[in-house]
């Protein structure tokens, strides 16, 4: 029996109590005879209560080397595919391509705010049909790592938390807070209960071999105190008590208490080791690229760099690697976070946003998986014998008792090739590369030698020249549903995230003696906002627009107000671009206009409007009329096409293009807004926000971060928006666009995305 192994009973989780681990730490202070007595007693207790079981009775367990499935240590390759970021019709194809690429596991978060829309009211349909997704993975004979969280980050709106959670009395997120823990435990129990009832855990014949509690708590706890530590301990204890029958993990949490396995996230994890010597080294997020934010260039990660990072992690003892993302997908609707995250969550992943293979990334990683899998017996059987061959070259040799041998030859030099002599043979290694020798003789793979032809993505115009009707919002009206308050209100507290939009309206009286009426130097209106964008209208006419950025979401608008004698209306449309997805107590962060709001240049000097009476209107009239839906659109009398006006709704109909190629809307001619196909939101669009940054080429060698390999500087951060074919009818498909800035819809087109010149690795 391997005393380093933590096993899991087939019918019930059997693990060290947290208190026992704490007690054992203190044993070393006792006399030798007392130590022996304590350890003997502990062993008797553990054996009698089946805390340690032989591998044969534990379908999923772990030891210091690897995850153990049905008694076998396994090197596991995994890929993140988030079920709400693609359609159910796409899931089988995505999972098949993941399997064909050499993956063993599909990893996904569970999206709390997509499932519990209000307390106790659950939704598990459409893109949120979690059980269906897991069964698709099961049908493909792959495993699942279910990251329940329920905090997920993921560049997802509010980090996956439902907005109603913020308004539970006395709540404080992710700390030792009873209201939060009650809500969190209820949801986690709900998910675990669903998985058990559907028999989806591995011991039930299902695919789930791992479950995650919390997510990336370490960076938060670093700045916290005793309450945060207590919360982490509680989370672990609560999770273990649910008896999932599979190991629990915590990522980026060095203090993860036993028996939870702490794991690594990052571009590189070769320096990572778990917090206890009897736990395996696991990499839950090997970042294949990075997310795109509006206003930023497109990030990329060369596959040579990624492959080097993975091979380096494996040769240094790692046994589980998950690619985040393997397919990124799309932030449909208003699901992207307040980091100005784009609708596209492509992530430069091996399978692109549309479900097509990105080459050479997919094929080169497939070759890596094949090479490492052929070394599996040696890798999981022993620690490596490491020898240095120069300043930047090493050889890692693994041998099993049955005679299996595998070698990893490493050249860490970022400038020069290297020739390594091993077992009397010469091996040439490019800079910053690792060669894998499954039999300690033949080079099966080198991380920098890419033999896969690069694919080229092209867009072919399919449908254009839409025949539009339009409707323009009236910025000069006050609906009956509005209300008045003195002072400025925080936006989320008013809208509860039911919409991105909140109108702030006030009035200013201008006397006929104002000097600016004579000299034409209109007063300066200054509006300070917590984010993210706003449009100012003076007496119904657009006066100006301002918006923040990923780096600085807060903004200040400065613009001259063209007032006239008498009463003047100031209407400000504040626009959110998602809610924060992380940070210390992000439930306390603000959105919208908090002030000050001032007028300068009047005869009396500066006028502070912050504490004036303000009228508030939640959302747009078009939203209230459901103009984006098939029913709402058909019941409304649209006007003739009106071009390039702000706050304008457009609708048109089109027939579905022939073929099965993925589709996208080319929105290059538009400014900012939202779009719908047959009532389904394809997300927020913002081609008017050009990418600002430094695009200075790309080199795979050396350290990588999200700023290293950027493209598309000076271009829209995103101009193509995914339209799933499953949303389309053969004829008369409804497209609705809401344009904030005044873009030109006549140049909108539906295009096909194709992959050309692809040579897949055999």
Task: Briefly say what this structure is.
It is globular and about 95 Å long.
Q: What attributes does this structure have?
A:
alpha+beta; 6-stranded antiparallel β-sheet; 8-stranded parallel barrel; 762 residues; 15 helices; disordered N terminus; 41 strands
Order the strands across the largest sheet as they lie in space.
4-5-8-9-10-11-12-14
Shape: globular
- How far from one another are the termini? 42 Å
Number of distinct beta strands:
41
Question: How many individual helices?
Answer: 15
How much is the average pLDDT? 92
Q: Give the amount of beta strand, in percent.
A: 25-35%
Poorly predicted residue ranges: 1-57
Return Rg in Å: 29 Å
Helicity range? 10-25%
* Sheet of most strands: 8 strands, parallel, barrel
Structural class by SSE content: alpha+beta
Catalytic activity: Hydrolysis of terminal non-reducing beta-D-galactose residues in beta-D-galactosides
Domain Glycoside hydrolase 35 catalytic: 67-371
Domain Beta-galactosidase beta-sandwich: 394-450
Family: Belongs to the glycosyl hydrolase 35 family.
What does this structure look like?
The protein has 762 residues and is an alpha+beta fold. Helices cover 18% and strands 30% of the residues. It is built from 15 helices and 41 strands. The strands form ten sheets. Strands 4-5-8-9-10-11-12-14 form an eight-stranded parallel β-barrel, surrounded by four helices. Helix 9 (303-315) runs parallel beside helix 10. Keywords: Glycosidase, Hydrolase, Membrane, Signal, Transmembrane, Transmembrane helix. It comes from Dendrobium nobile. Residues 67-371 form the Glycoside hydrolase 35 catalytic domain. Residues 394-450 form the Beta-galactosidase beta-sandwich domain. It catalyses: Hydrolysis of terminal non-reducing beta-D-galactose residues in beta-D-galactosides.
